[in-house]
Amino acid sequence: ALPISFELLDGTYEVAFRATDRAGNVSSVTEPQRIVVDTRAPRIGSHTMSLGSLPLVPQESVYDIPASTAIRFVQSLEEDAVQATLWVGGEQVLLQKSAGLWEAVIELEEGEYDLGVSAVAQLGNETDNTPIGRISVFERGRVLTGQGSGVEGVTLTVFVFDDGAEAWRRWQAESYGLQNPVQSSESGAYQLFLDRKSTRLNSSHLVIS
User: Fold this and answer.
1) Which of 113, 133, 129, 169 is nearest to 61 (CA)?
2) In whole angstroms, what separates CA 48 from the centre of its chain?
């Protein structure tokens, strides 16, 4: 066998060979063989986060989300990606491919978390942990007595201002798979997450934090 060396740019090629001996006899051309040259790591595309069907909109690349709540993360990658990982504050969450996108559901406690994504291509090329933003997880609100004790069973209702009707109307949270109104728990805790509109909060008690 004679060693042959050559360099190719990234792409798909069909390679065939023909040999000539010392007497000048020429062989027939071999059947073409397909070669794929890929030295690039998968490109990281866009991503979305949502609570129910309510899209989360970052402010200066920071997502504000409530604690202990299921958040859906969806990431787009190049088609040749075979593995993808979401990095949340240094912890790894393996993404699952579904309908051409990579996704996971995360639940976080109160705190600040850096977000990143890494991916592996079919030929083994890998991206490093690529920063994509930050999550700020806030604690639940609480309904309290004047002495600071939690109040259970308080009903809280969110209203949004309807510019057309010039009136306050109950926010239709069920359109996003959420609840409105909600009730405070035994410790007085409650959770409301709203889209960015003018809102008003009504409570059956007076002291809310």
Assistant:
1) 133
2) 5
Do 170 and 180 touch, CB atoms closer than 8 A?
yes
pLDDT category at 209 given cuts 50, 70, 90 is very low
Q: Are strands 81-88 and 91-94 parallel, antiparallel or unpaired?
A: antiparallel
Residue 136 has pLDDT above 50, yes or no: yes
CA–chain centroid gap for 89, Å, is 14
| 75: CB partners within 8 A, 6+ apart | 44, 45, 46, 47, 84, 86, 95, 101, 102, 103, 117
Closest by CA to 42, choosing from 99, 115, 125, is 125
Residue type, 65: I
Cα–Cα dist 94/91, whole Å = 10
Which pLDDT score is estimated for 198? 65
C-alpha distance from residue 151 to each of 91, 110, 124, 138, 157 (Å): 36, 22, 56, 20, 16
Within the chain, strands assigned E span 11-15, 33-37, 44-51, 54-55, 62-66, 71-77, 81-88, 91-94, 96-98, 101-106, 111-121, 130-138, 141-142, 155-162, 167-170, 182-183, 189-190, 199-203
pLDDT at 207 over 60: no
Beta-bridged to residue 48, according to DSSP, are: 74
**Confidence (pTM):** 0.70
For the chain, what percent of residues have pLDDT higher than 70? 94
